[in-house]
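yo

u said u wanted the structure for the complex thing, so here. seqs first:
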Amino acid sequence: MTLRDVNVGETVKVKKIDGEGAVKRRIMDMGITKGVEIYVRKIAPLGDPIEVTVRGYELSVRKADGEMIVVE
Amino acid sequence: MGIRIALAGNPNCGKTTLFNALTGSNQFVGNWPGVTVEYKEGKYKGDKEVTIVDLPGIYSLSPYTLEEVVSRNYLIDEKPNAIINVIDGTNLERNLYLTTQVVELGIPVVIAINMMDVVEKNGDKINTKRLAEEIGVPVFEISALKNRGLKEIVDAGVKAAKEAKPQSPKHRFDGSVEHALAHIEELCLHNVSDENVQRWYSIKLFERDEKIQEKLGLSSDVISHIEQDIQSCEKEMDDDSESIITGERYNYIGTIIDGCVKKAAKGMTISDKIDQVVTNRFLALPIFAIVMWLVYYISVTTVGGWATDWANDGVFGDGWHLFAIGSSDYADAADEFAANQLIVDGYDVYVEENGTEPTGDFDYPVEDEETLEVSYETASLEDYEAAKAYVESTEEPDPADYGIWIPGVPVFVESALDAINCNDVVKSLVLDGIVAGVGAVLGFVPQILILFIFLAFLESCGYMARVAFIMDRIFRKFGLSGKSFIPMLIGTGCGIPGIMASRTIENDRDRKMTIMTTTFIPCGAKLPFIAMVAGAIFGGASWVAPSAYFLGIFAIIVSGIMLKKTKLFAGDPAPFVMELPAYHWPTVGNVLRSMWERGWSFIKKAGTIILLSTIVIWFLTFFGFVDGAFTMLEEDQIDHSILAMLGKCLAWIFIPLGFGDWEATVASITGLVAKENIVGTLGIIYGASGDVYATMAQAFTAASGFAFLAFNLLCAPCFAAMGAIKREMNNTKWFWTAIGYQCGFAWIIGLIVYQVGKVFTGEGFTFGTIFGIAAICALLYGLFRKDKYNK
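structre next:
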């Protein structure tokens, strides 16, 4: 399962980050690393991106990028 | 010897507020060389020997974003004497991530935990003493907003700088990582003279940072050697090296936080509550529409529009009434007088043309000031008598009688030049060249300032990030950012503040794309021209004006998709992983300062190019050959000007577009000074034979007329907007790329409109149609070809 498939209001744990390069590094730099908990807060009014809470702050992630984040 | 202290910290950590509080008005704002990233430095208020450099807000020292690269290059190459690491106390965890990297650079570091007032209000506790011990760096509590702890933090920074004790990180990675790092250090870093920064280099090499590999000039031999170390470590830890490093940093921070921070049981903060409403699934779009409408209404329609009118027509026009007292009375009186005068003049014209006085109702012409459209109205003989009596009994209204009238700069300068019997050439140079040029620069400043109050407010209160969040889905398809919405919206009023508004877009490529495409949207100055074409060539058809906006939107979308696939915008796709900062009230001081900095940078960086180009066009317009002698010209002798000669030389360019004559060419060139000039120039050129609209209707067919319109809407904007583009691109190559692309794109669209349009307007299929269709195919290819630079 990836972050894309998580419903609003659910909390998940990150298993690993796929992909490479700038996007992957950015996702990790922002605190989404193995083992961290992510709470999916809401979806933007037009359906993308999503807003999540991670490490105590709010972050917006595109669904396409969310596919790189494997969660459980 | 002065001391240089760098401020480093995440975006939204209050770094700018701190910088402003520390330096006051002693600031220098510019750009990092060759890039659009802002550079700021200032002298510390308490000690002029201390220079404070404000680095861009960054989350990490990775090689992937411009801001991060600029910052880390500065820290490594310029070596400030100390770093003040600013941390948002309400979000220690992510903020400390940068700290773990900053302490590896070997430069003395002190930590300023900012926003302590908010932390205390939330009821959270931070054990700073323990934090300082854990990280091995002095830690201070401050609140830049409340002016708390500022002296202490700078004193600590200065002390650290004077001691010059290299910082060494306390943090150690996992055993196998440290093993690899030691190997790397041994293998390739003995050349690096400063051993304090060796650890940082070794970590970067472990992460396979290509920029650092290049910087150190490592041979492929050495790199493949390191690669073995990295791979064996990766195998052992079952992850890639970058993930290992970031993961370990965050785990380390987790252990520190557990011991140092006590969070109060957290309910919903005010910011959470605001966000629940503002980005709510159903309310977000209506709220967004209202906010945008407010920004537009105030900065373009009302206050901004008044400011621009005042600056252009008042200060750099005839003059203005102080506090606008008496303005409307004067306008009414002047209108009434003009209306009566028109009837009297119309009567005289009738007599002249018919050789006899009218016996009943007669028609008289009324010309629209902006579009030069002439319409006819009917007056009876009684109307004429009344008008005649009015005109004879009343003097033409003088604005000075209606309030405190302040003459405009041109009026003032003209009378001053007359007083000293100035030579006509010099007078024209000063008035039509210099004063007009300065007016073109300064005329837009009031509106820019008003818009920037809004932008600074939206940015610092946190709503701007939500704009990107809400609009991202639409704009990213065209290689733009959700924040591109604001530049384009403002661009419908005036392209200059529109281009400047692109400053709020963090991503370099998105910003450049926005700058290149914003002026495709018809601005206010193009409206009279659009109305003129609609009136003269299309009989006032109502579809012309909307079609201009559709054309603009079409141009943005097509350009976005095409450019995205070119080498210009090649490279790794820009990640859109964006923080949505907590909402808070910005301070008035910071908003005003941001407004002023941006307005001033427009004057400084865009001013010269605008002024020079206005003077060049003045020279071309007002000089030429009459009967073989080079002389200065009157305004209506434009057909003798150098500009007209130039137009004749260049007209062939527009033959495929259907308007390859010097008149249209010259009008397009004068449009570069200001787009509304196209109307004035055409008025002079076509007006010589009487009816401007009728002459224009003969000069253009429907196809060539629309091609002319399309070309002038899409080609390079006015000089003032070009100045803004130059300022925002901060790079000559990119500036010319933008201008060249706009002109080229406009030409191709004009070609398609004319050649294909001819088929539908009764001229049938011609040889040129092939080129029109070829151009369409080229556009389609550009749109749908495979994107080989981005995956």
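The beta strands of chain A are 11-17, 37-43, 50-54, 57-61, 69-71. The mean pLDDT of chain A is 92.
cya
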